Amino acid sequence: LDLEQQMRDALEKSEFEAYFQPIVRLADGGVTGYEALIRWRHPQLGVLGPGQFLPAAEATGLIEMIDWHMYRLAFQAAPALLGRDKILNINISTGHFHSRDFPQRLLNLTAQAGVALDQLCIEVTESSLLSDPDAAAEILGRLHEAGVRIALDDFGTGYSSLSHVHRFPLRTLKIDRSFIAPLGQAAQQRSMAIVSAVLSLARSLDLNVVAEGVENTAQRDALLSMGCTHGQGFLFGRPAPLGTGASLRAGEP
Ligand code: G
Ligand code: G
Ligand code: NA
Ligand code: MN
């Protein structure tokens, strides 16, 4: 059976699952939100991560059905996970982001699910923005006007578009984990410089910042010393299904 047919079957049999990873305030570890991350509980191969099937889903166009399925799963979990003030981050692939009715469908589903628009954050990548900047500005403009937050994912790995960030209605920059990994080590100088530059850019544009891939206290302390306010990573919690430990415990106030 080819991967495409397997993914179609997996949708029918509900083998895709939403895992959630906390996003925290670095100062006190308090959870401010969760990112929903897709997993495939494959009957033969075990739990697969997005890298193992999303590229094929994108190539075949199945990504749209898979994303909507994920958003429904994430929205079902939202009341228990978020309470009144936490934020739910969801991901979208470039091809899907540029599909005709994405923003309206997202707003409809959000309303249907009873998720507050200002508790929803959509993570987009620089390649989604730069593949068609005018279209992207219109899509993000609609979501922004409706109150949805927009985060730029993996910041620093793409065109790192200091020139582009101000063009879109962004709320948050997520600094890619490749810049966080060296922090606290001997060779941290260049990463420190880049992270500092992103933080000062964010301050001057009034954007929030989340450091991705925070794995140890040395990295957290280096980030705090530079004035970074928020982080995500194994130090604070691994992606986990709702109700199986990490996410739920971390979700308690
Ligand atoms: O969970 P993991 O770190 O392996 O995720 C890797 C990548 O998969 C991330 O870039 C993330 O943005 C993407 N991803 C995770 N869940 C989804 C999803 O539901 N839809 C889409 N389109 N991408 C996702
Ligand atoms: O593209 P995106 O940044 O959304 O991908 C997030 C991916 O990073 C997920 O697949 C998640 O499993 C992974 N991840 C989350 N926290 C950490 C971490 O602390 N270290 C590493 N190496 N990966 C992480
Ligand atoms: Na993401
Ligand atoms: Mn990311």
From TrEMBL:
**Residue ranges constituting the EAL domain according to the UniProt record:** 1-253
Domain of life, source organism? Bacteria
Q: What is this protein called?
A: EAL domain-containing protein
Provenance organism: Castellaniella ginsengisoli
Q: Which residues of the full protein are shown?
A: 402 to 654 of 654
